[in-house]
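Assemble and predict.
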Amino acid sequence: MRGPCEFKVSAKDTAGDPGAALLAASCPVPGGEGETILLAHGGGGRMTQRLIENVFLKSFDNPALRELHDGAVFEAGGARLAFSTDSFVISPLFFPGGDIGSLAVHGTVNDLAMCGAQPLALSAGLILEEGLLLSDLSRIVASMQAAAAGAGVPIVTGDTKVVDRGKGDGVFINVSGVGLVAPGIVISPKRARPGDVVLVSGEIAVHGIAIMSLREGLRFETTLASDTAALNGLVAVLLGALGEKVHVLRDPTRGGVASTLHEIATQAGVGIRLEETRLPIGEEVRGACEILGLDPLYVANEGKCLVIVARDAADEALALLKAHPLGRSAAAIGEVLAEPRGTVLLKSRIGGQRIVDLLTGEQLPRIC
Amino acid sequence: MRFVDEYRREEDAQAFVRAIRARVTRPWTLMEICGGQTHTLLRSGIDRMLPPEITLVHGPGCPVCVTPLTQIDRALAIARRPGVIFTSFGDMLRVPGSTTNLLSVKAQGGDVRMVYSPLDAVRLAEQNPGRQVVFFAVGFETTAPANAMAVKRAKQLGLPNFSILTSHVLVPPAIEAILSSPQNRVQAFLLAGHVCAVMGTSEYGPLAARYRLPMVVTGFEPLDLLQGIHMAVCALEEGRFGVENQYTRTVTAEGNRPAQAVLAEIFEPCDRAWRGIGVIPKSGYRLRPAYAAFDATARFDVADITADEPKECIAGEILQGLKKPSGCAAFGTRCTPEHPLGAPMVSSEGACAAYYLYARAV
């Protein structure tokens, strides 16, 4: 899930250690004294939410943070600025479709875009592990620059630290960024209203399955590549044409579409109903999810966004998304309801209905 | 997607629902054995599409759920040992023992790893000759052949550092235990298709005859379950008993003979404790004497570890179909996936988890 602006908590995403990141899902035995951080605290589910509420929000509470959006929006010198930060601790560092550098830049650019902001400038903080190949670092930095140039945002400041061998995982990257929110644009999860339509900009669960296919012990043949991409261009088109009719923007990264919509439903005090048959899911992703017993609704995405728009603007929004190179497979997947509040419902493929809950941690493949 | 979409078509599903409605004249209680089937029923919303006369109760076929606390505590004790690599399928890792779970042991420094196949654990033993690799061999007849293969492979390779902690259970003795209980209310069974794919269907005929009820071998897709329910309802309404096979695309009467052969070579039946239910005679597998060297319970001397199930958890009643998860006083309040009292709330095949995730009153 995405926490309050500066506190997006993520588990280390690793393919090197057999299933280590998938171990992240946990139900800790009631803690208190001596309770420790588990990988599941970064899994994007209920445990992440509790950590944010009970630790970070408790100490840092302020109006901008309390919005619990992808970034904070505040006024300064008559302008409305968006500010966001994101840290990347992934393994492997390079994967089909991207690497930690492009992922980090896209992540923060997209967080700003999801605030309705045009990104202005980024920072790059790199923590390097002793022994990292300089050629790998150069490749990552070049990829960061290419991603930033592609999004039209300069990286204007940075910082580097080096830690002992064994105390990092090659490289950890933090990217922070500021952006400008145009007058009249108010994007907030709280603006989801009954009657609004929920759109997704493309096929879901691609990034998560592409990364999982590289995992030790799970390697499967696939042509899937991560869909990491900067979404500020696509968002600018939507906001330029539809302005305040766009109510909510979110990129459903960790925790997937289900967790993100669950947060929106909770924050806006509305219900959201999805239709399973309308979810755009590629054949390869569906196949992998069937085999592993995973629900694509909870699998991570990059380069995709959820758009909640006023009903009278839904057709135009969908047409605009489909006309954009990053939105060709966009679809209307559901609607916002007045009731039941704080709940996501799904009409199943066979016509039944169920709730779509927030997971405790990440999904685990099943025994049989 | 082929071989999936065919079994999830809305118009076909609605046709089965209409057919069931047309056939049913009075209340019937059906039990699906397998937790995977329970999850399909609730995920697809089938439970709420059926006529009110039909009550579905959920059976003991969730291997994670029926593994007793004693065995979890033994696993935790082994996983904590220095030099041990403890391997398990994913959904065993968050199941609570008396005080902690495998993921918490990992967070405290234990080397706990998730594997996707028991043969991956054998490979780890080959790659780490200086370490003890233990696999948590949990499951019904479905997973037992692969676990047996792992032991066989380890013996072929002469691996002194591989062992399994066995908690294998069998379906027919569990059905017998449910049917012989004076409180039983199950009138028909949907048998677990994948168990029958391995073992065939011949074990069930005598049970169906003795207790005079219908048993339908059923698959796992929504249409499989609807068809299985329809077949069971027809048999009940007509007063027929015996075994029928809905899952003909996978299950034959004789089952998978090579898998049965490897099971017979490596394992022998033994009495086994089930969570919340107690010991059921001849309801599990243990390693045969020729393979006893691979028994982790003996190797790590954990046979003395025992634990009492928490009193508030009614897993035993849930797993026998005597109560539904929503009928548990702790459901959703003192027992949630984050703070579970028992395994059925955390297993991906657990009935309580299915109700919590898909069908909780909101």
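The two ends of chain A are 28 Å apart (CA to CA).
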